[in-house]
Amino acid sequence: MQQNRWNLRKAIFIAVLAVSVLVTMIFWFFRSGATLDFGGSSIVIIQFVVLAFAIIVVFRRLKSAKQNLPAEDEMSKGILRKGAATSYYVSLYMWLAFMFFEDKIDLERSTLIGAGILGMAVIYALSWVYHSYIRKSHD
Amino acid sequence: MTSRIKELRARDNLTQMDLARKVGVRRETIVFLEKGKYNPSLKLAYDIAQMFGMKIEEVFVF
Known about the structure:
Chain A is about 80% helix and about 0% strand. By secondary structure, chain A is mostly helical. Chain B has helices at about 5-10, 15-25, 25-35, 40-50, 55-60, and strands spanning about 1-5, 60. In chain B, helix 2 packs across helix 3. Classes of the chains: A mainly alpha, B mainly alpha.
């Protein structure tokens, strides 16, 4: 029961965070006067992917709380750890590529760092999906 | 490593959800254990064996 309440609180926290990010994102987009060209639309798409990941996490937690099951157990924690390790490894190469092509990419340094951080989030989401659903064994 | 969880669950008339609740894991973990795609920790293996009133080596086959 205590665990369930904690799961519910965590799910609500993630949902509130996701909504705040969405609102900030929309606000920022209209405030900055950005247009929906290739760069602008790809950043919006990446942000939506990250938000979709948060929504999946909230949905899973709420489902577990409803079924009176723990939101996390040793296998799901293992998947999170493996996902984090994989995404860290892949992100290193992404940053290396960013550094290598820095002169060729027509973006401000702060925008580039923002894109890198978003990229890391997407890589983490993808590696979590890979370890959860695609990889055949969870050892 | 293989396990006899599915067989023992059927014997005791338990669903995957029931077993998951009793040992405090997600249902997906039971699914992967039954398919032999996840090796449990010693604690989880012990809890599952206790649940069926058996020893670890009688439930999990190495």
